[in-house]
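Our working data are protein records whose layout never changes between entries. An example says more than a description, so a record of this kind follows.
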Amino acid sequence: MNDTAATSPTPEPAEAPHYQEPGVLTRKVFNGLVALATRAGVSVLGSRVLEVRGRVSGEPRRTPVNLLTLDGRGYLVSPRGHSQWVRNARAAGGELDLLLGRSRSRYRATELTDDEKVPVLRAYLRRWKAEVGVFFGGVGPDSTDEELAAIAPRHPAFVLEKIG
């Protein structure tokens, strides 16, 4: 038996989707305070509470997000990468609610291609760089289109269409 014929090269493992998990302080304190203010009807720099059906439990899951408005359309960007809310939104076919106080708006979120993300990421960083810039590896609102395109695969972004 020929050893070279019996073996084949092992394919390189695909890179796991980027995700930077929040620390305890962010998870237990900061997100809780923003969510509390938002549920009370106070938007902190455009904050909303996103509610989406959990992909495993089927139960509603809530997390604070920044709602970006650009050219009259709403967008959600995940600065930490392929987060739980992103995975849940994908599994729910993009159906999600955004909450502000007692107001609830239903949306269908459509994921943007990496090329479509460049102006959205630029606007997002212009608005919230002080809050989330650390997650973008030194890329900011004044970076080139090429630099923004290079990080786009690490940051899911969705355009929102109101459905209810």
Strands lie at 47-53, 60-70, 73-77, 95-100, 103-111, 157-162. The longest helix spans residues 114-132. The helical segments are 3-6, 24-39, 84-91, 114-132, 145-151. Residues 1-14 have pLDDT under 50 and may be disordered.
